[in-house]
Each structure stands twice: as C-alpha cells, then as structure tokens.
Amino acid sequence: MSSSTDSPTLTTETTQLSPQPDTETAKPTKKITLKSSDNQIFEVEESVAMEFATVKSFFEDSPSSTDIVPLPNVTAKPLSQVIEFCKEQIKFKANPDEAQKKKYNAEFLTEKSDKDLVDMIPVANYLEIKDLLDVLNQAVADRIENKSVEYVRNFFGIDNDFTAEEEAALRREHAWAYEGVDED
Amino acid sequence: MAGEEKGTEISDLPYSLMMEILSRLPMKTLFNCKLVCKTWPHLISDPLFLELQVARPYTDIMVQIKSRVFLTHVEERATDNNILEVEKTHFDIKVKFPGCNFDVIGSCNGLLCLEITKFTGYKSDPGYRSDPGYKSVCVCNPFLDEYITIPIIPMEERDIMRLGFGNSVLSKQYKVIQLFYYGNSHKYLRAEIYTIGTGRWRSVGNAPGKVCCLDRYGVSSLGSFHYALQCANERVRGLISLGVVEGCLCMSISTHSNPQEFCIWVMKEYGVKESWTKQFVIENVNSHPHFDFCMPLIFLSNGKILINRKGLV
C-alpha cells in the first residue's frame, strides 16, 4: 500500500477545476467555494458541488448565499479525491457511456491506497454522494474479502477489544473460517 | 492511521454504513469479521443487516449432503466452465440435536428450516424406531448459531404430508406451513401455518383439489405459499416443483411422456396467470425415474442456470 505522498496543493487543485474543451465552457460557470476542516479552500463548479446532496440542500435552504461552504468533517485530501471523482461523473452524465464509466471507476479505485478508500467513505457519506459511496463500499468489501481478522482490523484501523481468552474461544468455535485465508 | 487530521474516521461511521460494507462480503469472510471487535458481531446479527444482505446478488448457497450442511460460495469465472467453487465449510447441525435425524425443509434468506425426528434408542438397538411423537420443526440461523424449535403436535387423525418454509414479503415474517391429510380415509387435505413469533399453528382450512403427491419445496417467499396442487389443477401431468428465482415464481415440469426433458416456467408477473412463460427447455436430463426434480437456483449472467438436483437445498 503506497503511503500518501500525492497530497495535492491548492494551486493544482484550482487549475484542474476548469476542464477543457467543452463548448459549454464558453458560458460563465458559477463557482462554489468549499472549505475543508483543515482550512483548505476548494473552488468547484456549481454542477460538481450539486453532486453533493449536503451542499445542494445548503443552497436550497439559502439560495442567495455566496458564502464559503464549511465542511467541518472533511479533510482536504479525501475531499480533493471526491471532487476528482464527481467531475468525471458529470461528464458521463452529459455523455452516457457505461463501459467508459466502469473503466474510469475501476481505474479510480485501483490507484487508491487502502487508506485513501477508507478515508473517502466518511466524506462521501457526509456529502451524501450515493453513487460514490456505493462504489467505495464495494471496493472496500473486495479488498477485505477472504482476509484474516488482523488484516481487516489493520485495514480499518480498528483496535481489538477482545481479550486473548475471548478471541481464542471464538476462534475455536468457527475454526474453518480462519483456514485458507489469503496471505496478507 | 493518521491521528493529526481532523476528519471523520471510519470508526466514527454510523453502523448502517458499516453494515453496507459488510453485507457485500461472502459468509466466510463474515465469520472472520465477527472477531474484528466487539461491536461487529452486533452489526452482523442486526435484522437490518440481514435485509441488506438479502438484497445483494445471491452468491452463497447452502447444500445438504447427508447429515451435514455445507456452505458453498458460488463464483462466476469468465474463463472457466466450472463455475462452482465449493468451500468445504460445514455447519455441524447434528451436534445440536443428538439422537435426531434432520431433513432440510427449506431455506430462505440464510435461515434453514429443518424437520427434526427424534429416535428412541440407537440405530443399532433392536427396538429402534422413529417416533412420530418427537417430530419437531426447527428454524435456525446456522451462521449466528440461533435455533427456534416449533413443536408439531402429533394427532392420530393427521397424516403429515409436507412441510414448507417461507418468508412473507409483506409482513417480513417467516412462516412454516404443514399440509396434512385429515379424516379417516384421508379425505381432506388441510393446511396450517405457523408464523414465527406468534407461537401457534393457525389453520388455513382445506386445500383445494385432490392431490396425490405434494412437493416438499412447494413454498415460495413471495408473500404466500404455493403448492404443487395449484399446478395440478391446471392438469399438468408429471413431476412439478416450485421455486423462486430472481423474485419470480417458477416451476419446473418434467412430463411422463418425455422424462428426458423438463421445462422451466417462470411467472413473470406475480399473480398474473397469463404471465407464465416457458423460459427454458432442458433436454437429455439423465433422469431418475422417480424423484429427480430439477429446480433452477440462480440464473447466471452467461445464460447458464444453476440447477438444484436431488438432495440439494
């Protein structure tokens, strides 16, 4: 699992945000500013922000708001990845191509580390991006399938709160399930 | 895991979301997950979890081979003709019922319904016999190791023919049906339904028609019980069995005129008689002359059908 060295800087983030060469770019597009919990500012096109049900309802409640939308539960790195994903999904909405979309989603997921995936889930959940959440849940399930207990704990960063005796007793009960798991 | 960032951690996620993820795992990994931490067994045994799991594409089937129940994970492999990946994982149900024989009546959403017959004495004893007074029905979740026993009160004038097990879509309740002949000359066929949680058998009256043989799998989970006699009314001669595939009621019929062939009919629209469609005709079945019924279990994406042969659940 690659350690995270690719944390995007603000400048790269904002430059990425004007996707080319659609004719639509001729129109001025409204931008929405999001602020992560670690005080990074993300300027995204309105169409992208509207993919986030949470942000959408924020603007439905206060339509004239021009404020920065604070996202207190979301840190910059997973947020930037979520934005990246949603930008692509919007293109597929405009030009539906299931095969291409599948391919993109698969690539998007494969190149992410375990930690990236796990960190994006709470963000997708908080922002209520159903499609992404679904894709992430499946990706995570695929990565822990047939893995050992220790592997799963490590994967999610969960502490073992069983005593050694309790764990041993449970293992005896269903010994077969712990045989033949993948080498971690 | 990084602690310096202030974001929501996976452990802060609502239970429902964690269930979402876990419900996508095959049973074997789930067993493993019971050990991850103390909250996870609660997640997995939550009724909501079962609901989520049921909504997933069907990948695990339980198979009964003699007195053992195996859990089989079915995986489709694109390159391989052999789609069945059989993991030798078995539930030792026999241990729970010492001195008993069990028969699988049916399974639904991971629950097994068993007919338990208690024997007096050991098989080697000369006085050995199966005692009808000790018949009972057990509904169990072998995965959670939970068992509910339902007594069957033996009555002289009753002759139990078949038991069935299903789940009502409307009430989400699990029900067991028993069909029995009633009266001296086995004149009437009656049915009683036991809804789990109510604690009693409720009569649903006489079953229509004359039936000479009832199908043990004559049960659907689509909200009501169906039995083979419905089809018998339609004057189909031959062997019929019913099942539910992809949410549709279906039946497979092999006719006496051509025992080497059987057809699978699917009721596309529930309750609409006209929607019965002859979906498949399977030829050259190496058929046993008597009780070899074949029931589709899963339609695989490549057009193949996984079929239930004798002895499988």
TrEMBL record, chain A:
Residues 1-21 have a biased composition (Low complexity). Keywords: Ubl conjugation pathway. Pathway: Protein modification; protein ubiquitination. GO terms for biological process: jasmonic acid mediated signaling pathway; protein ubiquitination; ubiquitin-dependent protein catabolic process. Residues 30-88 form the SKP1 component POZ domain. Coiled coil: none annotated. InterPro entries: SKP1, SKP1-like, SKP1-like_dim_sf, SKP1/BTB/POZ_sf, Skp1_comp_dimer, Skp1_comp_POZ. SMART domains: Skp1. Residues 1-32 are annotated as: Disordered. The keyword Ribonucleoprotein does not apply. Residues 130-177 form the SKP1 component dimerisation domain. Belongs to the SKP1 family. Involved in ubiquitination and subsequent proteasomal degradation of target proteins. Together with CUL1, RBX1 and a F-box protein, it forms a SCF E3 ubiquitin ligase complex. The functional specificity of this complex depends on the type of F-box protein. In the SCF complex, it serves as an adapter that links the F-box protein to CUL1. Part of a SCF (SKP1-cullin-F-box) protein ligase complex. This is SKP1-like protein.
From TrEMBL, chain B:
Residues 7-52 form the F-box domain. It comes from the Eukaryota. It holds the Pfam family F-box. SMART domains: FBOX. InterPro entries: F-box-assoc_dom_typ1 (IPR006527), F-box-assoc_interact_dom (IPR017451), F-box-like_dom_sf (IPR036047), F-box_dom (IPR001810), SCF_F-box_component (IPR050796). SUPFAM superfamilies: F-box domain. Coiled coil: none annotated. NCBIfam families: F_box_assoc_1. This is F-box domain-containing protein.
